[in-house]
């Protein structure tokens, strides 16, 4: 594969965010804001897991993965930095991030575990983010047009998630991780991730005063279960992870390459970190 490029996004994430920045729609806004709240903690965990997993490999297995791992770390570090700025604006709107401290508590349970476990958890999350990313790149209109800066941020993040989706998986395979644990963690992560996402979305809507509005639920039904809805469109790619011969690169990522090519004015490449 081609080397992963680390890109500096040319957006000002320190400017205020409008309360319902996503098309004036409280549900979509709350959902994307909830996702953003999970990233600084989650992506730091992914970085640490992949770095430690890579270090645990014998030298001959480290070498072919080195550039990919460095690119992965650089991309995730950039994501978490920008989402931390985004989240700081959400704090100013009175939203409360309950997901991050809960995730941090849970991660303590993994201290001292075999490095294959955190890498399997990362690979499972990366599959999740990759299918979410691909869905978003194909349905970019769900982000609305009110805040072009956030549209760019979400699509850039999606494009890079799609781009580096195989790295954690490849480290897991190189570590000799087995199929059973890969699937066990994937099922657990699916439950935990969807549960956390739902809880934080509801929390955001409650603080926002939009939880019990009819339009909120109508939008939720449409964007999750409608024809172009997330659940309906991602169930099949989600399930493919369960196959013993699955590899992330079997899933199409042309939407990512296209977006990066068409929006090269939105970022400057800074190369891979040393
Ligand atoms: Fe990311
Ligand atoms: Fe990622």
TrEMBL record:
Matches recorded under Pfam families: Metal_hydrol (PF10118)
Tagged with keyword Hydrolase: yes
Superkingdom per UniProt: Bacteria
GO MF entries: hydrolase activity
Keywords on record: Hydrolase
Name of protein: Metal-dependent hydrolase
Organism whose genome encodes this protein: Ramlibacter tataouinensis
